[in-house]
TrEMBL record:
<protein>
    <recommendedName>
        <fullName>Carboxypeptidase Q</fullName>
    </recommendedName>
</protein>
<dbReference type="Pfam" id="PF04389">
    <property type="entry name" value="Peptidase_M28"/>
</dbReference>
<keyword id="KW-0121">Carboxypeptidase</keyword>
<keyword id="KW-0256">Endoplasmic reticulum</keyword>
<keyword id="KW-0862">Zinc</keyword>
<dbReference type="GO" id="GO:0006508">
    <property type="term" value="P:proteolysis"/>
</dbReference>
<dbReference type="GO" id="GO:0046872">
    <property type="term" value="F:metal ion binding"/>
</dbReference>
<keyword id="KW-0645">Protease</keyword>
<keyword id="KW-0732">Signal</keyword>
<keyword id="KW-0479">Metal-binding</keyword>
<keyword id="KW-0865">Zymogen</keyword>
<dbReference type="InterPro" id="IPR007484">
    <property type="entry name" value="Peptidase_M28"/>
</dbReference>
<dbReference type="GO" id="GO:0004180">
    <property type="term" value="F:carboxypeptidase activity"/>
</dbReference>
<dbReference type="GO" id="GO:0043171">
    <property type="term" value="P:peptide catabolic process"/>
</dbReference>
<dbReference type="GO" id="GO:0005615">
    <property type="term" value="C:extracellular space"/>
</dbReference>
<feature type="domain" description="Peptidase M28">
    <location>
        <begin position="266"/>
        <end position="447"/>
    </location>
</feature>
<feature type="signal peptide">
    <location>
        <begin position="1"/>
        <end position="21"/>
    </location>
</feature>
Amino acid sequence: MRYFSALLLAGLLAGGPAARAQTAPVGPKTDSLNIRRIFDEALLRGQCYENLRYLTGTIGGRLSGSPQAQLAVEWGQRTMEKAGFDKVYLQEVMVPHWVRGPKERGEIIGNKGKGVAVAVCALGNSVGTGGKLRAGVVEVHSLDELKKLPDAAVKGKFVFFNRPFDDALIEPGSAYGAAGDQRRSGPAEAGRRGAVGALVRSLTSARDDNPHTGTTNYGDAPTKVPGAALSTLAADRLSLLLKADPNLKFELEMGCQMLPDAKSYNVVGEIRGSKFPQEIITVGGHLDSWDLAQGAHDDGTGVTQSMEALRLLRVAGLKPERTVRAVLFMNEENGTRGGNEYARLAQANKETHLAAIESDGGGFTPRGFAVQGNPEAQRKIVAWAPLLRPYHAAEIVPGHSGTDIEPLEAAVHPKALIGYDCDSQRYFDIHHTAADTFDKVNRRELELGAGSMAALIYLLAKYSL
């Protein structure tokens, strides 16, 4: 998934009147008419929603290396071929093959032996427990707090990372970024200190019993210990009971394991540019998802929007002057192998990439785009905001673009990396949970997002950066 810290738009335009004078002018009236044609097609005959219905309902969750991931690859290739793109092909990539195993169990056990079952799930890439694992618990709220504890307070226990989202932050993605280190690195750091495992509060503001999975990274940690996510209600209960009984035990059972790497693919479809085919604009989302649900918002919406953006241009008769590629990246969730391989091949083939766009923040109501790139490219994109404003997609801010397209920066130096930005207030309620299902997606919001992406691609392909 994508997150960024929005900055003030004024910072983007820093440089005063001289800098503003260099911005590219908004295009002729035909641009407004052409963008209207894009949105008419998206709203009246859009295919995003039905494509997503099939991906989520027929194929379902698509964890890298799984049979469902392979079915999704075949579906993506077939769908783009039916859309009539000029070229559709696969890029082979070896991906991690982690399996969750039987449903996880977690239980708080008091000093009288009475147990309270709580909602847990394994963190992605975690090792299993090898049966039932029972130990005491020490609660911390940061990695720094763990470092300050004496060895005796940690050794042989579960480390319970209980830092909540900062709900004072307006952008939930900022709260996700701030709290995420305890999930990514918590189990590794717990293992370094002699703990038997790590329990991590789910990364969400929601108060419910849906535990949120997500990748944990062991790095070079000499000892790998199990890492599990607790639902927010479970975390609150454990914290409360710990205060009353510091000697309570927690029992965890997880059967997850890492299997040998598996062969998979990025799926690529392209429309060749009419004037500058050697210049490439990439638009994409990640085809893999976590296995707890259908992977609807994360990132089925981004996948279907990326394919739809190209279809909208084609059906509207707007032949792009630069080559446009839709890329369905494999393995964003627990390895980013697909994004790295796409960038490696782009570099090896000496490709020229003008820009790349990623949709990986859900399929909610459009707001605009977050832009990474040189200031001149950013100013040019900001100058197109009036053309996007009628469709509520005109917020152009500096920020994080997307995990899958970021490797392109070092590999081929595109002028801009761009993240599609939508209303994220509800996103982290369902992110990485069993609740990420098709029924949470609104058709109009989804199709409007595809139209917004297609409109920006149209402008990039016509005017460059």
